[in-house]
Amino acid sequence: MKQIQFIIPLLNEAKNIPLIYDAIRREITKNNIDIRITYIDDGSIDESWDQICQLSASDIRVKGIRFSRNFGKEYAIEAGLRQSKADAAIVLDADLQHPIALIPEMIEAWLNEGFKVVSGIKSQRQKESVFRSVVSSSYYYIFNRMSGLQLQQMTDFKLLDKEVIESYLALPEGSRFFRGLIAWLGYKEKLIEFSPLDRLHGETAWSFRQLVNYAKGTLISFSYVPLKLISFMSFAMFLFALLLGLQSIYNKLLGNAEEGFTTVLITQLIIGCAIMYGLSNIGTYIAKIYDELKSRPHYIISEETRE
């Protein structure tokens, strides 16, 4: 009998914890699969940990891991995968927007079709503002162009074979982007479309500012294009300066030279903005290098329930 570990990272999802447990148990009892469920509490301030402890006490298949503070979803996923000893793991959100009914199809693709990775992709985006939808679509377009990895509509809802998990955990970098790194590994993958379900309880923990910072970090981690843009801008500024110089010499020879304070001011502003943009990109990459060199642990576990 194959064993599958469910990895469920969460933050302030007390009301959803028993619901997703019941949904998994109902769906998987239809299949001859031995399951384990691991909740990773990423610094919740509600009753999430109490709910996890109650489930763990009533079902030996349930385990809880509690971080000392909020370290982020990427590291919560990593913590869950590191303690997994199963033949495969399924990563899904605790908000019930990833349809549990899709799991048997994912397991079938893994067991009988030979796929090492089975990923759920959104056939449509969940309800959100037009602005947020445009920003999200723009980010994925830029990421795909800059990194060469196709992550459009991709989610963290994935089934991973044990071999994939071992390869993922062997990656040395501290800055993690789960979706991007799984795609980068290049294992045989099947994509299954789904429509995100409505959240039953609670609200998303991601603010717009956090999403922007997250997007910037993932782009820096997977591409050198921002650095290359500095060279491109330098060349563009050189051409601009050359044309402006030729124009000034031409006007001087014709006796039409004027006091060009406006032109000089605009030129200085453009050059100054280009320099600041370049320094900003360089600073971001240096900060990433600094974080990697510190080699701090990705997370701190303060409590665990029994197996």
UniProtKB/TrEMBL annotation:
Its main location: membrane. It is a multi-pass membrane protein. It comes from Cellvibrio mixtus. CDD domains: DPM1_like_bac (cd04187). One of its GO terms (cellular component) is plasma membrane. It is found in: Membrane. The chain crosses the membrane at residues 229-250, 262-287. One of its GO terms (molecular function) is glycosyltransferase activity. Gene3D superfamilies: Spore Coat Polysaccharide Biosynthesis Protein SpsA, Chain A. The keyword Membrane applies. This is Glycosyltransferase 2-like domain-containing protein. InterPro entries: Glyco_trans_2-like, Glycosyltransferase_2, Nucleotide-diphossugar_trans.
